[in-house]
Amino acid sequence: MIHIDAQPYGFTFLPASTALIVIDMQRDFIEPGGFGESLGNDVSRLAAIVPTVAALLDTCRRHGIAVIHTREAHRPDLSDCPPAKRGRGDAALRIGDTGPMGRILVAGEPGNDILPAVAPLPGEIVIDKPGKGAFYATALGEILRLKGITHLLFAGVTTEVCVQTTMREANDRGYDCLLVEDATASYFPAFKAAAIDMIVAQGGIVGWSAPLAALTAALEPSKANP
Ligand code: TIU
Asked: What is the pLDDT of residues 116-131, one digit of tens each?
């Protein structure tokens, strides 16, 4: 058993029954010209976590923790994009419109790719999801069940939208969930802080939170205490 020093109390898991879910580390959210910027956000803040997510991926891969990536991605014909989602707000570029990185939030377009620094390795599962939560209208639940996964680690963007929505979906499905707090980011720092507070409040009503260093110290104690 691995024990992580976490909020609101220790998080205990077995690597063989744990998966890392990396949420939506896509150009559409992290680079100018994509969906995130079309919503009026300053996307520069999100790029800061890329090295931490890359280090988290490396740690999990070396310790036999399954890695699953998600992308917020719609079919080219937008048949899986509710009109209410496409119509929300007053964006100049909407989902499906053509921007500098191709069609906004559409599968297969350059902007929909995961950033090379945190790209999936061959054999790692990639879930395309039409919603904010990764369980809605995807095979994620079935894939986790078949793999015998009971514990989930979360990273990616944005903390209070797709990451928190997926953690809440997972929590209701009976998974123990830990947010790697420096491997997630929001366009709004106050929202990230509030999301973490909400997750760990009330004895971990949604789950746990800890920095990557706490996970690394637990998995590689000899490196933490040379
Ligand atoms: N807008 C925003 O903060 N996020 C999203 O629309 N999707 C994800 O969080 N991936």
From this structure: 999 999 999 999 999 9
